[in-house]
Amino acid sequence: MNQNRKICTCGKSKNPPYCDHSHEHKQETGEVSVTLRKICTCGKSKNPPYCDHSHIMINVCPHAAASSEATIPISPLPNKILLIMLPYWDPLIPPQGISHLKHFLQHHGYIVKTVDANTKREFKLIYDAYFDVIKKYVPVDKQGNLFNIGHDVMRNHMLAHIHYQDETGYIELIKEIIYQTFFTRFNNQQVMELKKVLDEFYQFLQDFMLHLLINEKPGVLGVSVLRDTIGPALSVFRFTKEKYPFIKTVMGGSVFSDHLLPGSPNFEYFLERAPYIDKIIIGEGQDLFLKLLKGELPGEQRVFTIRDIGGQTLGPSPLNFPDMTDFDVNGDYPYIAAQASFSCPYQCSFCNVKPYFGKYREKEPAQAFREMEALYQKYGIQLFFMNDALLNRVATGLAEEMIESDLALYWDGYLRVDEAVCDPEVTLKWRRGGFYRARIGVESGSQRVLDMIHKGITTDQIKRTLISLATAGIKTTAYWVIGHPGETEADFLQTLQLLEETKDYIYEAECNSFIFGFAGQGDSETWKNKRKLLFPQNATEMLIVQSWILDEPPSREETYERMNRFVQLCSKLGIPNPYSIVDIHNADLRWRKLHKNAVPCLVDFKGPDSYIDECKFIKPLLLLQEKIEDQGDFGFENYSSMHE
Questions:
Q1: Per-residue pLDDT tens for 581-616?
Q2: d(CA 325, CA 375)
């Protein structure tokens, strides 16, 4: 990236409308490609001496602090709503909660602007810088699933960073946060390297928000919050109230299904420590948000759920549809989103989906397809990520609608291991209907652990499910839970054995440690007398949102050591867990080599004027008269001819 930026020679740096430096321009020395930037909030872009934009992130503008301290008057628009998703979450799809709110509220006459800060390059640079420090000091054999478990460190660090009063106590807490994930001791200097990155993050976040507030002039600011965005959200709410106390602040999001579950100690303490948040909406938010804006909810009440409006929800209504026009859908995201069902018909021991989202509901397959068709016509994207908790009950109906249509659409989503998925005729139909990638909760290779989780599946079904999907060419992402309460070393070794035996039928393997919430999970009542704080009680003042663990084997250190071994075996077996576009492409090429009917590579969908319809012409690699039965060694010989 160019470290010596000059005032743009187009002339607009010195004359309104001022240049935003987002274009390519020429200087006397030749053509210079200028990194995408917006007008600097330091103010020097508009006043001499003009800002030369040489303070690119993550080197924060030297004038920014003074700018953030000053308050530029704004006249808010009463009907203007600013909805935002803050860092850090993986921008796989445009944020759906705020997209649905935009569509619904605009239908009722409000002006809504939606923003996804995760697509901003400056935030991505800061993210990379933070993890570069982690990678520099954590031994490779202890990094495990770095870009997953590392978010636990970053989330807690972000919270402590905006609340600490004593630097010595802050440094000691960050050391403990890092140790409880990577079991590596950082020294003071290493912690201060991470602190510097977050100093720059929060300074840029304030500049970013100030720019938004001045330009959008909202009467209401709404933030959709996930567990990994709590710290930035609290910072933004506090900053907004300090600058413009007349802007109403509203918080929603899935964080209220886990880390801020109502009734938990975290939730009560959060309410006490976050007075700058005016209103909180828990659960499906469209009707609640509208009634809040109209003044139809009690003014003195701060927290609202659908129980406050008699359990009323939109469900599969035409108004429950996303408006993603504020996002660069084609440029910033690999997928576009759709949904064919709500909630989950099952209840696993560790899962909070059903308790939070309630009764399972389905759309008619024709409705789901029509909505996907409409999104394709509007945005021109063929590849969909399905927001369903599970696709099992809707996959066949959706595939049949796709097969009947002349339009080829591809879809990716979560799937449960079951007997129907073991049937290659079923998975072949799904493949013809555009099923692109199945994300499967395998969880464990131990039948004993599967039974403790209440999965209702067998290890034999896991094997046959993976083989059936892979043979059809559908990518398989296998999710594994390491360290479920009661998991023994023998159980874990069975997981490694299953991983090795099915390696050629797994597109991607991702392991996660068992995560315990204070309440809200399937087995919360069973576990409630064994819960304890991960960090000291006196850390609560900095963290606001504490983490809970179970006082039951395996220990946290054992769990993370097993995760490291899992990742090392995946590397040895050549099973990827890709994050970058290069990694994903390499994983796609591996899949193509393994399976003749493999779905197209992700990059194939991003070509100029690309339209892919190969799913319409998929043929079985082996004609079967009846479902493949498990014979011999996991049924592998039944499938061997499919790959000849």
A1: 899 999 999 999 999 999 999 999 987 678 999 999
A2: 11
pLDDT of residue 221: 98
What residue type is assigned to position 166 of the chain?
D
At 501, phi and psi to the nearest 5?
A: -70, -25
Cα–Cα distance between 369 and 375 in angstroms, integer?
A: 10
Instruction: Tell me the C-alpha distance between 269 and 253, whole Å.
Output: 18
Q: Is the peptide bond before 49 cis (omega within 30 degrees of 0)?
A: yes
C-alpha torsion angle, residues 544, 549, 555, 560 (rounded to 10): -60
Residue 383 DSSP class: E
* Beta strand ranges found along 507-617 (DSSP E): 508-513, 531-533, 548-550
Cβ proximity of 568 and 444 under 8 Å:
no
Per-residue CA distances from 345 to 351, 392, 451, 465, 518 (Å): 12, 10, 18, 19, 23
Q: What is the structure's pLDDT at 635?
A: 36
Nearest CA-CA partner of 410 in 372, 444, 353? 372
Q: Which two tokens stand for residue 86?
A: 């803050």
CA-to-CA distance for 53 and 59, rounded, in angstroms?
Answer: 11
Task: For Cα atoms 169, 173, 175, give the angle at the middle one, nearest 5 degrees.
Answer: 120
Whole-angstrom Cα distance, residue 390 to residue 181? 30
CA distance 553 to 486: 6
The C-alpha torsion from 490 through 496 and 498 to 499, rounded to 10°, is 170
Residue 222's DSSP bridge partners are 83, 250
Q: What is the pLDDT of residue 526?
A: 83
Strand 279-282 vs strand 303-305: parallel, antiparallel, or unpaired? parallel
Q: Angle at CA 264, nearest 5°, toward 263 and 265? A: 125
Beta strands in 333-398 (DSSP E): 336-338, 341-342, 361-362, 383-386
Tell me if residue 359 falls in helix, strand or coil. Answer: coil
Residue-level length of the chain: 644
> Which residues are within 8 A (CB) of 226 and not within 5 positions of it... i.e. 6 or more apart?
89, 253, 254, 255
354-359-360 Cα angle (round to 5): 85
- The per-residue b/e assignment along 586-619, b for 16 or more CB within 10 angstroms, e otherwise, is ebbebbeebbebbbbbbeebeeeeeebeebeebe
Q: Which residues lie closer than 8 Å to 377 by C-beta, 6 or more apart?
A: none
The residues pairing with 280 across neighbouring beta strands, listed in sequence order, are: 251, 303
Closest CA to 538 of 169, 168, 228, 275: 169
pLDDT tens string 537-590: 999 999 999 999 999 999 999 999 999 999 999 999 999 999 888 999 999 999
Neighbours of 410 (CB within 10 A): 23
For residues 67 and 455, what is the distance between their CA atoms, to the nearest angstrom? Answer: 54
* pLDDT tens sequence across 293-349: 999 999 999 999 989 998 877 767 778 889 999 999 999 999 999 988 876 776 565
Alpha helix positions (H), 183-279: 188-216, 230-243, 265-273
For 495, counting Cβ atoms within 10 Å of its Cβ (0-12 exposed, 13-18 middle, 19+ buried), the class is buried
Instruction: Specify the pTM.
Output: 0.85
Please report where in the chains the tokens 């490291």 appear, as a residue.
564
Residue reference for tokens 């800060």: 117
Three-class DSSP labels, 70-117: CCCCCCCEEEEEEEEECCCCCCCCCCHHHHHHHHHHHHCCCEEEEEEH
- The pLDDT of residue 363 is 83
What 3-state DSSP class applies to 177?
Answer: helix
